[in-house]
C-alpha cells in the first residue's frame, strides 16, 4: 500500500512541478493521472500493484469533495445577490452541456461503428 | 482530576482538527446510509446532503469555515492522489480507447463550447454583469483550472470556485436521470458527459455507476479542462461583439 501510494504521489508531484514550470493550463493531479497512465502502458506489471490502493482511494471519491463544497458558504452573499441569473445558468446550462456532450458522442460513435462495420464487410 | 464543563469541552474540541475531520466522515457515512434506506433515491445525493448538513452545523455553532477546514483539509488533500489514481480504471479500458478516441474528441469540443455558451448566454439574458459572466464561464471545469481562467479573464475567482462546486452538484443530482430519460445507456457516453459538464463531482457520480463510467469521466474531466483553458481567452472578444 505504501509502495503504491508513493508511486501515486510521485506522479502527482511530477505533474504539479511540470505544470508550474511550463505554465500549462491543467491541474497537476490531472497531468499526474496521464503520467501514471503512460507509465502503466510502458510497464503493465505495475498495474496490479497499484490497483488495490487506487480502487480504495476511488471508492469514496464523492467524500473528497465535501470540504471544498462546504466552502460555498463563504461566498453565499455573492451567490445570493445574483441568484436568478446564476441559478438558471447552473441548472439549465449544466444540463444543456451534459446532453449536448452525450448526444455528440453518441452520434459520432454511431458513425464510427458504421464505418468500421462497412470496412469489415468489404 | 477535575471535571470539564460541557461548554469548555466544546470550545476545546471545536478548535481541534480531529473534531471536524471525524464529523465530516460521520456525516458522509450517515448520508450514504440515509440514501440506502430510502432505496437509493437519486435526489438524496449524499454529497449534497453532507455539504448542506455541515454548512448548517457550522452556521448554527457560529464556526468559521477556516476552522472547519483545519480538520477537513486531510480529506481535501486526498483529492490529488485520487485524481492520479483515475489512471488505473483508464488503463483497464486501454484496449477500447482507440475506438473511442474520435467520439470523445468530438464530444469534448461540443461539450466545452456548449457549457460556456449556455451558461454565459442564460446569465446574460437574465441581466448578470460582466464580472459575473466571466466568473461563470469556466464553471464546468475542475476548480484549480477554473479559478485560473476566471482570474485571467477578469472574473472573481472566489465566485468561480463556488459556482464550480454547484455545477458539479447539479450534474451529480440530475445528470444521470436526464441522460437515462433520453435513452442514453452507453457507459462511455454517460461517463464522458458527466466528466465534461460536471468535472470531478460528476466523475465521482459516474464512479458510483461503474468503473467504466468513472474512468471515462476522469479522462473527459482532464481533457475538457485543457480545452476550455485554451478556448476561453476568446470569450471577452465574443462579449465585445455582443456589445458587453
Outline of this structure?
Helices cover 82% and strands 0% of the residues of chain A. Chain A has 122 residues and is an all-alpha fold.
Q: Helix and strand layout, with pairings?
A:
The complex is a heterodimer of chains A (about 120) and B (about 240).
Chain A lengths: L1 H21 L5 H15 L3 H14 L6 H5 L5 H6 L1 H39 L1
Helix pairs in contact in A: 1-2, 1-3
Chain B lengths: L5 H9 L2 H21 L8 H15 L4 H13 L1 H7 L1 H6 L4 H29 L4 H7 L6 H11 L3 H25 L5 H23 L1 H21 L3 H7 L3
Helix pairs in contact in B: 2-3, 2-4, 7-8, 7-11, 7-12, 9-10, 10-11, 11-12
Structure report:
Chain A is mainly alpha-helical and 122 residues long. Chain A folds into 2 domains: 1-59; 68-122. Chain A is built from 6 helices and no strands. Chain A has helices spanning 2-22, 28-42, 46-59, 66-70, 76-81, 83-121. The longest helix of chain A is centred in the last third of the chain and has 39 residues, at 83-121. Chain A is flat. The model of chain A has no long low-confidence stretch (mean pLDDT 92). Chain B is mainly α and 244 residues long. Chain B has 2 domains: 6-77, no CATH class; 84-241, no CATH class. Chain B has helices spanning 6-14, 17-37, 46-60, 65-77, 79-85, 87-92, 97-125, 130-136, 143-153, 157-181, 187-209, 211-231, 235-241. Chain B is globular, with a radius of gyration of 20 Å. In chain B, 50% of the residues are buried. At the A-B interface, α1, α2, α3, α4 and α6 of A face α2, α3, α4, α5 and α6 of B.
Jot down its keywords.
heterodimer, A: 122 residues, mainly alpha, 2 domains, B: 244 residues, 13 helices, 0% strand, globular, transmembrane (chain B), CidB/LrgB (chain B)
Helix content of chain B: over 70%
Tell me the series of helices and strands of chain A, N- to C-terminal. Answer: HHHHHH
Overall geometry of chain A comes to: flat
How large is the radius of gyration of chain A? 21 Å
Bulk shape of chain B: globular
Q: What oligomerization state is this entry in?
A: heterodimer
Output mean pLDDT of chain A.
92
Organism (chain A): Marichromatium gracile (Chromatium gracile)
Keywords (chain A): Cell membrane, Membrane, Transmembrane, Transmembrane helix
Membrane topology (chain A): Multi-pass membrane protein
GO cellular component, one term (chain A): plasma membrane
Amino acid at each position: 500500500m505504501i509502495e503504491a501510494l508513493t508511486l501515486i504521489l510521485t506522479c502527482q508531484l511530477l505533474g504539479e512541478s511540470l505544470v508550474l514550470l511550463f505554465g500549462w493550463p491543467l491541474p497537476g493531479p490531472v497531468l499526474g493521472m496521464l503520467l501514471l497512465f503512460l507509465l502503466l502502458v510502458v510497464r503493465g506489471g505495475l498495474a496490479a500493484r497499484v490497483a488495490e490502493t487506487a480502487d480504495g482511494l476511488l471508492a469514496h471519491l464523492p467524500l473528497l469533495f465535501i470540504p471544498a463544497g462546504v466552502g460555498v458558504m463563504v461566498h453565499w452573499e455573492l451567490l445570493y445577490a445574483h441568484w436568478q441569473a446564476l441559478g438558471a445558468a447552473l441548472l439549465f446550462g449544466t444540463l444543456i452541456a451534459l446532453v449536448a456532450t452525450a448526444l455528440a458522442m453518441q452520434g459520432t460513435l454511431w458513425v464510427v461503428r458504421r464505418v468500421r462495420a462497412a470496412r469489415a464487410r468489404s | 482530576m477535575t471535571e470539564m464543563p460541557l461548554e469548555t469541552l466544546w470550545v476545546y474540541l471545536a478548535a481541534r482538527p480531529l473534531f471536524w475531520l471525524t464529523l465530516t466522515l460521520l456525516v458522509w457515512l450517515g448520508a450514504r446510509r440515509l440514501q440506502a434506506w430510502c432505496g437509493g433515491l437519486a435526489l438524496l445525493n449524499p454529497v449534497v446532503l453532507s455539504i448542506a448538513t455541515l454548512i448548517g452545523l457550522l452556521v448554527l455553532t457560529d464556526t468559521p469555515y477556516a476552522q472547519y477546514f483545519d480538520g477537513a483539509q486531510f480529506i481535501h488533500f486526498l483529492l490529488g492522489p485520487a485524481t492520479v489514481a483515475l489512471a488505473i480504471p483508464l488503463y483497464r479500458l486501454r484496449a477500447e480507447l482507440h475506438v473511442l478516441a474520435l467520439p470523445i474528441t468530438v464530444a469534448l469540443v461540443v461539450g466545452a463550447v456548449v457549457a460556456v455558451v449556455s451558461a454565459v448566454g442564460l446569465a446574460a439574458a437574465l441581466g448578470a454583469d460582466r464580472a459575473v459572466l466571466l466568473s461563470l464561464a469556466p464553471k464546468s471545469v475542475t476548480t484549480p483550472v477554473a479559478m485560473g481562467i476566471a482570474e485571467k479573464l477578469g472574473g472573481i475567482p472566489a465566485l468561480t470556485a463556488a459556482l464550480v462546486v454547484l455545477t458539479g452538484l447539479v450534474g451529480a443530482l440530475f445528470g444521470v436521470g436526464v441522460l437515462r430519460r433520453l435513452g442514453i445507456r452507453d457507459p462511455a457516453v454517460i461517463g464522458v458527459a458527466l466528466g465534461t459538464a460536471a468535472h470531478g463531482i460528476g466523475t465521482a457520480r459516474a464512479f458510483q455507476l461503474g468503473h467504466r463510467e468513472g474512468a471515462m469521466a476522469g479522462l473527459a474531466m482532464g481533457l475538457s479542462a485543457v480545452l476550455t483553458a485554451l478556448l476561453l481567452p476568446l470569450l471577452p472578444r465574443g462579449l465585445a461583439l455582443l456589445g458587453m
